[in-house]
Amino acid sequence: MKVHTLVHACVLTSITTLTAQQPAPQTTAIRAGRLVDPEAGTVSANQVILVQNGRISAVGANLAIPQGAEIIDLSKLTVLPGLVDAHNHLALTYKEVPENNLYYLTYVMESTPLRAIQAVSNGIQMLSSGFTIVRDMGNNGNYADTALRVGIEQGWVPGPTIINSGIIIGAMGGQFFPTPEMAKDHSIVYPEYLDADTPDEIVKAVRQNMLFGAKVIKICADCKPWGYSVDDIKLVASEAAKAGLKVEAHCQTVDGVRRAIEGGVWSIAHDSGMTEENHRLMAQKGVWRAGTETPISLTGHTTQQRYGNSVKMLKNAYDLKVPLTFSTDADYWVQGKTRGEVAIEFIETWKAAGIPAPAILRAMTTNGYKVSGTEKTRGPIKTGLAADLIAVDGNPLESIDALRRVSFVMKDGTVFKRDGVVTPEKFFNPGPVNGWRIR
Ligand SMILES: [Zn+2]
Questions:
Q1: Max CA pair span of the chain
Q2: pLDDT over 80 at 14, yes or no
Q3: For the segment 241-298, what is each residue's pLDDT rounded down to a tens digit?
Q4: How far does residue 16's CA lie from ligand 1's centre (Å)?
Q5: Which of 140, 289, 333, 408 could tie 391 with a disulfide, CB 3.0–4.6 Å?
């Protein structure tokens, strides 16, 4: 009976929707003093961007602004598409106190629900710095990353578009070094890692992540000496492909990177296993590089030696035309900085590598959309795409430091930040306004 009543109500609702007069959609018109196209590396003066129903409906110099449109005047600013951090962990924030910056302790001391709340805050902080897309690559407790993505997509809270990996899949132990009693009696590796050693376990682990809302699959290729073989990685990739998902491999050794490339991964995280030879293979096969190059200015999070290697290998990758993404792995608290300010600090490594500002901007935008798989739906400021855009003083094609001061942010057509102040009221809703079926 209950089912029958529900169906009846639904039918009534859809009839009402079909016959009711639809009001004309509200148009927002943005006047952009300068509009950057990062793909082309060009700037156009005095452009108008029209936004309807969360999407860009027109872009051009001499567009007629419809009557009644809300006008946003950014004529003194430079407008550009949103930024992408291709590797972060928003439901993880390790700290000097109490855990001495060891996330191994963070996940013992902080529950998944608390970390999910931290993730919402971190997402808001990333969006305030202009990051409209974040690839969230695991180490998020028991699927706090999926909760964050769904919460944002359903319309409960503001935040970047999240491309989340669920739980990192690794051979026994993941990145941890547990005691036998903690590992065997208390399964302490879980839920930061899914132990998957045999082909059956690998298939099951990939399916578990897909079932629980992952949009990309993350593996540890070589976190342990036993790691994954080329065939193991091929198996991960083919299972993930059944749901249209790509694979990112965490690699920390030269051989791990080589196996990941041969196994057919989409992207490789971290730079300690990068060599000129591996770079040549990545360029040839079009494997994305998410090098997570920590700047020396984030004291305590890299060493002079590691930083020197990061700069050298980032330059090498750029020279060899490896597909580059801007990726931070900025999963810790730096006193006095928001999470977004920590992430933007990573431009320092790119500048030190001598990479020109237009190429850095391309890594942070165009390439970010491609590695996220959103380039046809979200990212570029083009008609029909989601209305995500930011504005800054100055010109980031001349000085990438312009991105340190994002004064305006629009996400899905709604203003999130204006005149340097976050004004998120319109993003907070008493229900799943975009639909509860989003999973
Ligand atoms: Zn990471």
A1: 70
A2: no
A3: 999 999 999 999 999 999 999 999 999 999 999 999 999 999 999 999 999 999 999 9
A4: 49
A5: 408
Residues 84-111 have pLDDT tens digits of 999 999 999 999 999 999 999 999 999 9
Rounded to the nearest whole angstrom, what is the distance from the C-alpha of residue 327 to the centroid of ligand 1?
Answer: 9
The rounded Å distance from CA 194 to ligand 1 centre is: 15
Three-state SS for 411?
strand
Give Cβ neighbours of residue 295 (< 8 Å, ≥ 6 apart).
302, 307, 345, 346, 347, 348, 349, 352
Mean pLDDT of the chain: 94
Dihedral sign computed on CA atoms, order 54, 59, 61, 66: negative
C-alpha R_g of the chain: 22
Burial of 186 (0-12, 13-18, 19+ CB in 10 A): exposed
Distance (angstroms) between ligand 1 centre and the Cα of 290 equals 10
Give the CB-side neighbour count of residue 45, counting CA atoms within 13 A: 0
Distance 329 CA to ligand 1 centre (A): 5
Six-digit token pair at 193?
Answer: 């890692």
Q: 373-377 contacts: CB < 8 A, separation 24 or more?
A: 373/163, 373/246, 374/133, 374/161, 374/163
Rounded to whole angstroms, the Cα distance separating 333 from 58 reads: 40
Cα 137 to middle of ligand 1, angstroms? 6
The predicted-structure confidence for 112-137, as pLDDT tens digits, reads as follows 999 999 999 999 999 999 999 999 99
- What would the pLDDT profile of 253-263 be if each residue is shown by its tens digit? 999 999 999 99
CA of 260 to the centre of ligand 1 (A): 16
Cβ neighbours for 206, distance < 8 A, ≥ 6 positions apart: 169, 217, 236, 239, 240
